[in-house]
Amino acid sequence: MSDPMRVRAAESGGIVDVKILMKHDMESGQRKDASGKVIPAWHITTINVKANGKDVLNGQFGPAVSKDPFLNFKYKGAKGDKIVVSWVDNKGDKRTDEATAS
């Protein structure tokens, strides 16, 4: 399993600002290692963010997204909202982390 994501959520005026740093190597499948062999593709394919059990963001990533992707978005919410972030990569690995809006 990969390293935990850093998830921060802060509410101001009824808007929750969510910042997510995902730890993932995000290989495109086009780079070569020192011996000249192609490094296989390995990247996050889908991401889902829920607030209090309700979807607030669904997304699809591809091989062009950089290593350790950072995502920032806003939604209408409140302090205390439970934010759950989940992703799945093209090898079937999964990660889920949580935060509470402050």
Automatic annotation (TrEMBL):
Annotated Pfam families: SoxZ
InterPro entries named among the record's database cross-references: Ig-like_fold, Ig_E-set, SoxZ, SoxZ_dom
Gene3D superfamilies named among the record's database cross-references: Immunoglobulins
Domain Sulphur oxidation protein SoxZ as annotated: residue spans: 6-99
Protein name: Thiosulfate oxidation carrier complex protein SoxZ
Source organism: Polynucleobacter tropicus
Organism phylogeny: Bacteria, Pseudomonadati, Pseudomonadota, Betaproteobacteria, Burkholderiales
Name of the gene: soxZ
